[in-house]
Amino acid sequence: MDKKEIRAYLDKALEREYSRGERDGYQKGVADGYRRGKAAVILPHPCDGPLYEDWRWSQQLDKVREEFEEVVGAFDSVRDCTEKHLGMNVFQERRDHLMRECTDLIVATTTFMDSMWCDEDERQKFLYEVNERNARRDDGRRFRKE
To answer: Whole-prediction pTM value?
Structure first.
């Protein structure tokens, strides 16, 4: 299954979920929602509860590293699935697990940034700056043109 087929499958699956209204809080969209300006506005929430209040920056960064390793492991599972042609159901399960691990990594990174007094407004500012800089780098070839 190539990337186009996977994207088409995901678009169809997401369309079905959105039409049934099972994705409360998400805007209706397709796999390339960012390019079409339909990205959901759900932001990562830093883990700032009592469990983490005594953590040092090095511990927060270790958590980011741990989550990254889990992303790599989940990716290996997806790659193994596609190389062995284990079918779309297995692919979807493993892909969803990978996406959850990626989301955990985003939350761990957000938590680390928050522990360094980088609040939501500042994180949004940095994200905007990085996106703008990346849009100009490499002769503007980092992002697809519509």
So the answer is: 0.69
